[in-house]
Amino acid sequence: MYKILKKEQLSSVVWLMVVEAPLVARHCQPGQFIIVKSGEEGERIPLTICDYDREAGTVTIVFQPLGVSTLKFLRLEEGDCFDDFVGPLGRPSDIVEMSHAELCSKKFLFVAGGVGTAPVYPQVKWLREHGYEADVIIGARTKDLLFFEDEMRAVATNLYITTDDGSYVHKGVVTSVIDELVASGREYNHCVAIGPMIMMKFVCLTTKKYEIPTIVSMNPIMVDGTGMCGACRLSVGDEIKFACVDGPEFDGFKINWSEAMKRMQLYKTEEGRAKLRYEEGETHSGNCGN
Ligand code: NAD
Ligand code: FES
Hints:
- This protein is of the alpha/beta class.
- The protein has helices at 22-27, 68-75, 94-97, 100-105, 117-129, 149-155, 174-183, 197-209, 243-246, 257-266, 270-280, and strands at residues 2-9, 15-20, 33-37, 45-53, 58-63, 81-82, 84-89, 108-113, 134-140, 158-163, 170-171, 190-194, 214-217, 233-236, 239-242, 249-251.
């Protein structure tokens, strides 16, 4: 059992929980995710790790209650426990495996959209803790949906906030800020974009214009998070990958966005899943990534 030590509402729709999970905390890295389950019959929910404290043995998760399972998470209070908290899963972010020389050569731009702000945070924090700089853009539809402003300001070199409706700081979506930064003469050679699929697609279209290689996190298409259900299958260049075992991070310029977005919609219904099984046969499912 994994005890919830802290529960906090971050915005009108987003919640944070700090969970006692010493083994996960000891081994996890930025970019990895865990699978959480509440109740014997509960659904397995993959969530990107937002923060961790190896000494305290805690892992922080951030979620937006949307389906029945995440709504049930909301009923849990501090002192209650998750039945399962499995991880760390997936591959760590590229930054963790880069050499010192490579990291020094990077001019990082992180683009966080909405709930995607949570998985951006541990990467920027990791860079700061290791002595590297990174600019960050956070985009939210409106001021009420913005969270982690202070936390991100503490670890980012420059933080740019934008709201779609102009209710706070800048008005416009994240891509408009990228255009403005580049136009003002700022140079970047490594972008990481994490947020809704449509945002990641449009960030890639924007950064491609400026030849800024861009990594995205395909967490939104995961369902069981174990390589078995096939939901997270995607085309990356000429290869078939599974976000939960080969990712979740991939080269955004190589992703077939229209296919990934179509599959995500199809996977939401029984009929859609049957159609995918029929069309893709044996290769539909990841079967542990093979
Ligand atoms: P949202 O719809 O509020 O969008 C957040 C920001 O993204 C916007 O404020 C805007 O700046 C930008 N954006 C959206 N559409 C854009 C477009 N067409 N062009 C340019 N910029 C655009 O986001 P939300 O409601 O917080 O997002 C929820 C989604 O985020 C869920 O679908 C969830 O799966 C996904 N998510 C993804 C990850 C990940 O690892 N990629 C992590 C957590 C959540
Ligand atoms: Fe099911 Fe990856 S989420 S195969």
